[in-house]
Write a structure and sequence with these properties.
Elements (H helix, E strand, L loop, with lengths): L3 E3 L5 E5 L12 H13 L5 E3 L14 E7 L14 H16 L3 E5 L9 H8 L12 E8 L2 E10 L3 H4 L13 E5 L2 E2 L10 E4 L2 E6 L9 H9 L5 H9 L2 H4 L3 H18 L5 H28 L1 H4 L7 H25 L1 H40 L6 H8 L11 E4 L7 E2 L3 H5 L11 E4 L13 E6 L2 E8 L4 E9 H12 L4
Parallel strand pairs: 1-10, 2-4, 3-17, 4-5, 5-8, 11-12, 12-14
Antiparallel strand pairs: 2-15, 6-7, 7-8, 9-11, 10-11, 13-14, 15-16, 16-17
């Protein structure tokens, strides 16, 4: 039996991707998206046909039963000023407005916000120890892949949605007020055997973010083999966004990185005894100055004398004093007994700090600067939908049998075939692939300022829409009726003689 969910006849599905909230490329995305949501919340759902094949497009959008956020909604991969708090701040108001729509919200993770998908594993791992109250809010749904149980999605309920919308076995039945987090694709690809996708008007729809079409997939292959996420890019970005880096001025980062590199180079050069002693002396002086600065800041400064510092500063005062005393005492002892051994020990301390700084500060910062140009060499960004259909779509990747695949990632709002005439033309079409591919585009403004696009689905068909922020209106640029999609499916599946 096909694991298929159906959309009510009088409702619709809205699909958005690639808002990149918190990114540096377009800081006004959240504002435009909020204006679009306010437009819907006020009951304005009129559509203006303006493009190819829009004779069948809806003139009024039906109320959404689902909103699918199809990946890269948050910019956690390359946030503004390497601060992921920017993504949270940009997303707070849009997410609250989405909740006011009163429908199910599905969050499919992309490559730039894949950290959100870790919530599924976190709740699944904590399942045996979580409080009973969690079961009223969080539920993990699982499938099986390669003989192994796999947590597929996490459903989060508010307003007692589970309590009033579940069967005896606890499955959700058309529950409203649900946020579902589904890593990488929707619906879950391994649940219930012959998954057909989301059904509307007899047409089945599947949803990918689209990073699956990138040339390089080694990290995903390793993750699948070991049964847990492996993502070197994300790990380096975690370090680049940590507080110690964000709170260190970039000039200071460069100076400390150069010093760390010099100390490390000296340490591994066999004939540099004098340089090692000089580096050890520099480290000792730096530690003594740190201790003296701590004594002044936590004990002798006007703020400390007036009691403006917290009580714990007393411990820092003692630690700073002990550090200063140890360094000066060791240097005085070394002056009497021979400085080589003492300075060698300080050089070793400087070498360890240099290696620590290099691997936790310098390399992640450098990686954050250069990863985008390198990634664009391998990603599907700006590749056409037809190119993806012909070169990147294959049976091992596409395990749905849905007639329509909706995806994003490439920031190109288009379809393949491009129009209804192309939909009827079955030459060079593969019966194992979807009949129609719809690309949601993005909400990151480019040079032509023609973004802010999304996909709209109801029982009559699927259309590519755009929010015209200047005119405050919704524009339909392409529309494919359900009847023609099903007719094209029959033409492609039936061999021609």
């Amino acid at each position: 039996m096909a694991a298929t969910e159906s959309i009510p006849v009088d409702e619709s599905v809205l699909i958005f991707s690639d808002l990149h909230l918190g990114g540096a490329d377009d800081t006004q995305t959240a504002c435009r998206f909020c204006r679009f949501l306010d437009h819907l919340l006020k009951g304005h759902r009129d559509v203006v046909p303006c493009g190819m094949d829009t004779g069948t497009s809806p003139t009024v959008m039906r109320p959404p039963s689902r909103v699918i956020l199809l990946g890269d909604i948050l910019e956690l991969w390359d946030p503004r000023a390497q601060d992921r708090h920017s993504a949270l701040l940009d997303a707070l108001v849009p997410l609250l407005k989405l909740r006011e729509l009163g429908c199910t919200i599905v969050y499919v993770t992309g490559n730039h916000d894949e950290d959100v998908g870790e919530l599924v594993d976190t709740v699944d791992t904590a399942g045996s120890t979580r409080a009973a109250a969690w079961r009223e809010v969080y539920r993990v749904f699982s499938g099986h892949e390669d003989g192994r149980r796999v947590p597929e999605s996490l459903k989060i309920a508010w307003n007692d949605a589970y309590r009033v919308n579940t069967t005896k076995n606890g499955m959700v039945v058309n529950a409203r007020d649900i946020l579902e987090i589904s890593p990488r694709h929707y619906p879950a690809a391994t649940t219930g055997g012959d998954v057909m996708g989301l059904e509307a008007g007899g047409v089945h729809y599947a949803f990918f973010h689209g990073q699956q079409f990138d040339n390089e997939q080694y990290t995903y292959a390793i993750s699948r083999a070991i049964g847990r996420r492996f993502d070197l890019v994300d790990s380096m970005e975690d370090l680049a966004c940590c507080s110690i880096i964000r709170n260190t001025d970039w000039r200071m980062r460069i100076v400390l990185s150069l010093v760390a590199f010099a100390v490390s180079a000296i340490g591994f050069y066999p004939e540099s005894e004098l340089a090692r002693l000089a580096a050890g002396a520099t480290t000792a002086v730096a530690l003594a100055l740190m201790g003296a600065a701590g004594v002044w800041l936590f004990g002798l400064s006007s703020r400390a004398r007036k009691g403006f510092l917290p009580p714990t500063s007393g411990h820092l005062l003692w630690a700073s004093g002990i550090l200063f005393a140890l360094v000066t005492a060791s240097l005085a002892w070394g002056y009497r007994q021979g400085l080589e051994g003492v300075l060698g020990a300080y050089f070793l301390a400087g070498l360890l700090f240099g290696l620590f700084w290099t691997f936790t500060i310098t390399l992640p910062t450098l990686f954050a600067w250069i990863k985008n140009p390198i990634y664009r060499l391998f990603s599907a960004r700006n590749r056409s939908t037809e190119e993806i259909y012909r070169n990147a779509m294959h049976g091992r990747l596409y395990r749905y049998r849905a007639e329509v695949l909706v995806f994003g990632h490439t920031h190109v709002a288009e379809s393949y075939p491009r129009n209804r005439a192309g939909l009827r033309d079955t030459r060079d079409r593969d019966g194992e692939k979807p009949v129609l591919m719809m690309n949601t585009g993005s909400w990151v403004s480019g040079v032509d300022m023609k973004n802010d696009s999304f996909v709209y689905i109801d029982h009559d068909g699927v259309g590519l829409m755009r929010w015209d922020d200047g005119a405050c209106r919704i524009v339909c640029t392409t529309h494919f009726p359900s009847s023609e999609i099903l007719a094209a499916k029959n033409l492609v599946r039936t061999p021609r003689f």
